[in-house]
C-alpha cells in the first residue's frame, strides 16, 4: 500500500499514513463516545494517530485504540464541562439526539446546526 509521511508538530515526530484513509465521520458531524458519557462536533480529522507518544501512553493498555485508523478532533461536552477531545474512529458513534453542542467555540468554527450536523463557516473552507 502506498504511504505518505507527515510531519506534525503536536506529535513531535514524522508519521506514516496511507495515501487514502476511510473516515467514517465528517467535519460537522455530531458524535458520541462509545464508552464514555460525552458527545461533540468534529472539527478536524487525522488519517492515523497523530498525537504525542506521552498522550498515547496515558491510555490504559487494555483500552488503547489502534493507531492505523482515523482520529477525530472534537469540540466536546459532558454534564460538567466543555473541552477538546481526540478520539479514535473505533470509539465514536453518530449521536442521534439531534441536539446542538453547547461548547463555547462552536460559533467560531461553524455557521449553523441543521439535520444533526454543523456547517463549517465559509471563511474556513477552501
What does this protein structure show overall?
This protein has 126 residues and is mainly beta. 8% of the residues lie in helices and 40% in strands. It has two helices and nine strands; from the N terminus they run ββββαβββαββ. The chain has helices spanning 53-58, 106-109, and strands spanning 3-8, 13-18, 30-33, 39-46, 71-77, 82-88, 92-94, 110-114, 117-120. A five-stranded antiparallel sheet has the order 6-5-4-3-7, with no helix packed on it. Strands 1-2 form a two-stranded antiparallel ribbon. β8 and β9 form a beta hairpin. It starts with a strand and ends in a 6-residue tail after the last strand.
Sum this structure up briefly.
This protein is mainly β and 126 residues long.
Summary keywords:
globular, five-stranded antiparallel β-sheet, single chain, about 130 residues, mainly beta, two-stranded antiparallel sheet, 2 helices
* Number of helices, where a helix is a run of at least 4 consecutive DSSP H or I residues: 2
* Strand residue content: 35-45%
Structure classification:
mainly beta
- Identify the strand order in the major beta sheet: 6-5-4-3-7
What about the largest sheet? 5 strands, antiparallel
Q: Total strand count, please?
A: 9
Helix content: under 10%
Distance between the termini: 29 Å
Average predicted confidence as pLDDT: 88
Q: What's the gyration radius in Å? A: 15 Å
| Topology order in helix (H) and strand (E) letters | EEEEHEEEHEE
* Low-confidence region ranges: none
- What does the overall shape look like? globular
